[in-house]
Write a structure and sequence with these properties.
CATH superfamily of the largest domain: Regulatory protein AraC
Helix content: 40-55%
Number of strands: 11
Distance between the termini: 71 Å
Shape: elongated
Order of helices and strands: EEEEEEEEEHHEHHEHHHHHHH
Oligomer: single chain
Largest sheet: 7 strands, antiparallel
Length: about 300
């Protein structure tokens, strides 16, 4: 596998992988740990197989598949990505970032021998058929522990090296099994499956939904308050809300507020400006634009329709 290209303090810097090993089971594993002010990484293409990449990071990260640098999408920490190995996987950040990445190259021969009859893999393989598709899954706490153990591995020699390598192989196979058993979705392709991939994330999303339902009309309610309460990054919550609801967390909050305002308009007790203020809008014009974006009609016209039906 070619070395990873990276932008660190020196634009020409290209730190080599932390290690590259051929596992006894036949998979090739490669690990990188990068700390950079900016990042423009390319995990290079290979022939006849799949590339399973696990990433975890602090900072901001976007990903894309293929030689074109168009179509970057926001990534999330603790993510597994599977794509055809014939196209490079691009990772980009314009901000300081600390990134760990582990890749498993799965050759076509290994797939034929080990995975072809696996029903979960057959579904994932169908999702990969579209050009530019990336199938993803979230890593839970146990998987992140295995990931951390792999990235902490140091290259050694002799019998101790072989013992460590077998342990790394066990960790890698556990991550592969988790990927095959988790619900999958397309990140860069079409026909995305939605949903949350593990219990930790599902519990988090339910906690956030409950918090939003209780406080979304408060004048002190902010997304930052949610992040502090849950100790979660904005990018992770956005990723989870897109997976579960098909929208960002800000769009979810907006929809909750506008739906509440529609009910208040139908009650015909308060004015439009009063309603806008009570659901958290300080600008009446912003409220009108948000209402029209969802219902294709202004709140004033909707009120008249309700009045005519009364």
């Amino acid at each position: 596998m070619k070395p990873l290209n990276a932008v660190a303090n020196d634009l020409d810097a290209a730190p080599p992988p932390r290690f590259t090993e051929k596992l006894p089971v036949g998979l090739q594993i490669t690990c990188w740990k990068v700390s950079a002010d900016q990042l423009d990484l390319s995990i290079p293409a290979m022939e006849n197989g799949l590339l399973l990449t696990f990433i975890n990071y602090k900072g901001d990260l976007q990903i894309a598949l293929g030689d074109s640098k168009d179509g970057f999408q926001q990534a999330s920490p603790g993510l597994g990505l599977l794509a055809q190995a014939t196209q490079p996987l691009l990772l980009r950040s314009f901000e300081p970032i600390q990134l760990s990445a582990v890749t498993l190259f799965i050759s076509s021969d290994w797939i034929d021998m080990m995975l072809k009859t696996n029903p979960n893999f057959m579904k994932i393989e169908q999702a990969l058929e579209g050009e530019g598709n990336i199938v993803t899954c979230r890593l839970g706490r146990r998987q992140l522990t295995l990931f951390a153990a792999i990235t902490a591995y140091s290259h050694q020699h002799g019998s101790e090296h072989m013992g460590n390598l077998l342990e790394i192989q066990n960790h890698a196979l556990c991550l592969l099994e988790h990927f095959l058993c988790s619900r999958h979705r397309n990140l860069a392709g079409v026909n995305a499956s939605t949903g949350i991939d593990n219990e930790d994330d599902l519990s988090l999303i339910r906690e956030v939904e409950s918090y939003i339902s209780e406080y979304y009309c408060s004048d002190t309610f902010t997304v930052d308050a949610i992040l502090k309460k849950t100790y979660t990054s904005y990018h992770k919550l956005n990723f989870l809300f897109k997976s579960m609801h098909g929208m960002t967390i800000s769009e979810y909050i907006r929809n909750k507020r506008i739906e509440k305002s529609r009910e208040m308009i139908a009650d015909n007790v308060k004015s439009i400006s009063q309603i806008a203020y009570e659901i958290g809008y300080s600008s009446i014009s912003n409220y009108i634009l948000a209402f029209k974006k969802i219902y294709r009609i202004t709140p004033g016209k909707y009120k008249k329709q309700m009045d005519n039906l009364a």
